[in-house]
Amino acid sequence: MAYSRRLQQGDTVTDIDREACERILGYSFRNPSLLDLAMTHSSSKTADGVCNERLEFLGDAILGMVVSKYLYDNFPDYTEGDLTRVKSVVVSRPILAVCAREMSLHDFVRVGRGLGQRKLPRSVLANIFEAIVAAIYEDAGLERAAKFVLDHLTEQVQAVVQDRHEKNYKSILQQYAQKEMTDTPTYRVLTQKGPDHAKQFEVIAVIKGQDFASGWGRSKKEAEQKAAELTLELLLRQTGGTECPSEPS
Predict the structure, then answer these.
(1) Which end of the chain has the lower number of beta carbons within 10 A, N or C?
(2) Could you tell me where in the chain the CATH 3.30.160.20 domains are found?
(3) Does CATH number 3.30.160.20 belong to domain 178-238?
């Protein structure tokens, strides 16, 4: 059964078609008010401030922990940096938003009138996903919340891991930059030295006209990969190492 309209300010939370939403989620709430709360965006909160922001906060932490544990258990050869970079992509706003949209969660979100007729920004969709994770955790505990997370994110983990396994730092940086800065990285040779049979190149990564990190290699391609890797590390430090740079909404 499809839900016919997005709830707006003034509609009661209990009007949500919980049965249809729970069928999409693959989970039935023992405490339905948690689902109502998870689906209440801050733009529609009432004078008492009821909205899903606190659930978003909790859901973000649960997501990070569940994905971290999955990576730790399943990729024992990965370094801390490898694990951090994979996790950063998997729990990023764009990927969470895609998961939310694939489940049609946007049809069940209660929003203020300003968002009622608009396509919901990725930030709202990602926050809804986080809030749902927390709501399930509060309703049934960590094991059930982890199952929900991994049911929807394991495929994303495998896709990112494939890039990491191939050490395709340029591919990952391109994904970051396109989502965060709406730009594709380019690379510029800064220096080359050594005899023809043993040349070394220094290449710098450039995103939206800004120079980032540079790297050395025995070929331009190798130097580009190193520059991309170091630029990824720089972007991760700027976000605390826990969240992939995400596209502004």
Answers:
(1) N
(2) 178-238
(3) yes
